[in-house]
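Q: How do we represent a protein-ligand complex in a form that can be generated token by token?
A: Start from the inputs.
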Amino acid sequence: MATQATLNDKRSVHQSADDGVNKDLVRLAKRFVLFLRSEESSFLLADQVPKTIERFVKQESIPKDDTLKSLEKLYRGCQEILLSGDYAYAFLRPRIGIKRYYRLHPEGEDFEPVSRGQYLFAKDEYVQGYDMASKRGLVIDFSSFYDSFPTVVDTNEMGRGMTVLNRRLSGELYRDRDRFQNALLKFLSQFELDGRPLFVNNHQMRYETFQEDLETTRSFLDGHPEEDAYEDVAHDLRRHGFEPGWGAKVSDIRSNIRLLDKVLQSADPDHVAGLIGKLPLVKNILMVSPHGWFAQENVLGKPDTGGQVTYVLDQARSLERQLKVQFAESGLDITPKIVILTRQILDAQDTTCNQVREKVYGTDNCWILRVPFRNLYGEMIPHHVSRFQIWPYLEVFADEAKNAVLAEFPGVPDLVVGHYSDGNLVAHLLCEDFGTTHCAAVHALEKTKYLFSDLRWADMEHDYHFSLQFTADLIAYNSADFIITSSFREIGGTNTEMGMFESYETYSMPGLYRVQSGLDPRLARFNIVPPGVNEEHFYPAHEKDRRVEAVRQHLVESTFGENPSEGSVGRLDKPDRPAIFAMSRIDKVKNLAGLVELYGKSKRLRKKANLVIISSETDASRSSDIEEIEQINRIYELRDQYQLDGVFRWRGARLDKVETGEIYRVVADMKGIFVQPALMETFGLTVIEAMACGCPVVVTCFGGPAEIVEPGLSGEIENPNDHEAFADAIYRVISDKSVWEDRVRNGIERVRTAYAWSQHANKILSLTNLYSYWEYLNVMNRSSLDRYIHTLFHTVYRPRAEEMMRGA
Ligand code: LCN
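Then emit the structure tokens for the protein with 1,5-anhydro-D-arabino-hex-1-enitol bound:
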């Protein structure tokens, strides 16, 4: 089959003055390949390519002429170069959304385009040798299922899936007007409340007959006082086929019915979104988040437990709030219900993770529901299981959860929101049974976090089990009706960095399978829906009358004082100096050790400010997590190496939400700064929380934080591997009062305008309605895709999970 890559790649990889082969460039590229062979570097990753070219130029005394410029241009954005067999292969990604694969033979006259399949073969050959690589194996290719599914053309529209889908499908369907009009009426007539129809009654399933009723109703409403309630017009509306749900007041009912008329007549995508997106179609929601420790207190900072828990709880609260508003505005007396399904951990330590049911604080009807993991013999697993080890438990968990969930709702939920890879796999299994719309929230994809996690999966399998996780990702994210991410980068990356989802498009796990088309980041399924901040806890430091003095004082003493809380390390000689503050788990990827090192190296930072870190643990002997132990030990080494006594405080604590908001404000009171130095961060909720509290931020350039912060305006963005640059950025802000104040002001404003939970919840509800609607019209031809996904689960995922369980 001709893949997209071969079709795209007909044009030449380079251009010369006469538009023919640029012989000088090919010659130079071949010399570069010989140089690689002599260096014995047979695999270069994106960040190594420019450095290697630099070395090549220096060592080989390459003239800095136009040919060299062309070579540098050719390899700009190059993701991989590998030497395999006689050839050198390159995966070029000149900009977002564009991928090309080429190879060059030492005696070749030009670069040769290769298909994705050939490229993956070369990678396998590189890892396994020719004989193994040429054996028949499993090839995964989802592309044919999406032949008729809308994709974005302009890469700027990546992540605006709903807009693209609406535009395409509205246009297409309107060409078949009859079908569109009747289908919309039929769609609306399927909703009911306690056995009574909503919106339109099922006598109104044909537009021809409905049209007259619509016109009569419109003029009837036009003549009615705007402030009258639904009850005043209910009888007349019903006579013409209109049931409750259009509004609580005549003014709302009138504008919604006008909109319905417009949609039926024109299928304009904005009207479709405006009408269907706003209708109260969802009342019961299931959220699935088995990841980490899930509870409302004492869990943040425990292994695998951070922003996701905060996100899920706040999302549940905001969804309930918006559902209530929606029902009130539509005149419907409905109490929505939200259930968060997570795992039960019997050895709950100081948490409530052993409780089966728990009410979510500040809600009327949101519940946490816990179901245990079980071993081969059906016995409960009492302890927490790391995110890398949970794969064998999920199918049985989903089966048991199914009955527990059904006991919570009157029927099946109207929407299932899966969270992270494990939650989305379970959400997929449940939705297969329920037939419910599946919204997938991502939080993190591990693939780009770990170098060679696909190619070298076999070496890492014992600790990480990526074969299961990446298969689960392919299954769950292909099966979800729509995917929400917090940032663009998660989908399409940047001009130099691959998007997290993009990395699932074409990859190989040698010996397991080759993925020729896994997840296409251009599909109109991806929607950027950033989270918000909880305004109750995260508000600016200058709002003094909202702050609780006792909490402030306690935090000052326990974090900065002479007698800090138990588990704290280090002394502060001048506790009132500005603090360079960081707070996170101690995973390697969070890079707290990198922060200690760059602070230790910078004399002027040490002179100006203290380094203050809060993480859940400071004592390696109390941890059982390998990465955590390694990182803790490394921080102690660095503390000694740079003699940080007197300027470094490391507090081992898990703060609750009240304290978390207040600690950022305390840091702001001291004219300090919050830093986020992660080597990769999907979004970075802590960044928006700190900004909302009036704490300036310096953040990593890798991942979501770089999309939150507008550099030089609402914060600074730097490469945390470049210690000097990162330290300079911190210094710039803390050493200049006006810069500091400027960042505070702009940071607060940025969060206020761009990150609100109410917007988030509204968007999810309207996406749910719209995707369910298009799905209902069967424009996506899902059944063959579903069968392929089902096969993948049963032939790849399940046997591997069973094998892992037997080995556990
Ligand atoms: C997981 C992460 O790694 C963070 O970057 C996010 O802020 C969090 O989940 C919430 O989505």
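The mean pLDDT is 94. Residues 307-308, 311, 443-444, 486, 681-685, 704 surround 1,5-anhydro-D-arabino-hex-1-enitol (CB under 6 Å).
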